[in-house]
Amino acid sequence: MNFSWLFGLLMISQQVNLPDSLLFTNNGQPITGVKCPQLSMNLPGLPLIQFDQLNQCMDELDKLVSKPPRNASFDRNGKMIPEQVGYRLHRQNFIENVYSYYFNNGSSKFNLPYQTIYPKVDSELLADLQNKKIGGYVTSFNTFNQERTNNIYLATSAINNVVLFPGETFSFNHVVGKRTSEKGYLPATVIKKGEFSEDIGGGICQVSSTLYNAVDNAGLDVLKRFSHSRKVSYIPPGRDATVSWNGPDFVFKNKYNQPILIQAKTLRNKVVVDIYSSEVIKFEPRQVPYLPDDQNYLHK
After folding, report:
1. pLDDT of residue 10
2. Residue 23's beta-bridge partner residues?
3. Mean pLDDT of 91-116
4. Which domains does the chain have, with CATH numbers?
5. In DSSP terms, which residues pair with 264 in a beta bridge?
6. Could you tell me which of 44, 43, 161, 55 has the C-alpha nearest to residue 98?
7. Do the Cβ atoms of 225 and 250 come closer than 8 Å?
8. Residue closest to 212 by CA, chosen among 179, 236, 194
9. What pLDDT is attached to residue 212?
């Protein structure tokens, strides 16, 4: 049952004042591009708030003016990029302004109220997480295959700088997202049902496989991991982790009591993934096998 009429009755405290319409501003400038429907039903001497319309109005305003926070991160040269706070529409304050307009002779023009959103990872935390390397892995690829190299670079960049807090899980498909041409992914060789074929994003399984071995080396809990239907050349047998959108995924969990940081990059013909944490972490590393050339790279 819709009780909006009852809320309207309860909010009446003075004679009703109804100018033509509400005017929303952002830093003093009128908001354009948002169509807020009529927020009340006007009965003789009594406005009734239509909460479905009010929520729709707030949703549209929020989409227009909100800004997501940005975590602190490292660039490719290891330089720290500071975090940035975000903001969104402060819905409770917005509703109070609307009620004031309809029920308390309030102003028909008001600046949108904002709520600050702080990033999960600030510069102080990120600096602490680079103190101790707890795992890592390296694989090699053919840079002459430009389409595959492009896809490897994009997927590596997507998982770089991810911070996983204690108890949180990491899904490769969720973090990297759908591999599309709009994101810059190109057709390259993939393995489907034991056969080679071409598909958008071919090559990213090398990134997920390198990550899997770095995660395993760090002693983290692997929750989902699937092998290809045939052997791949860039990693020892049985050590691969195939991924596909709406298909196999690689998922692991941070079982430790400290956050972990994923650092991933391409360096010439290498995919390099390292796992870091704070100095106080107590971890249980595991030995993982390498191909001979990659083993030699680690000891250079």
Report:
1. 41
2. 109
3. 85
4. 4-123 (3.10.20), 129-298 (no CATH)
5. 273
6. 55
7. yes
8. 236
9. 98
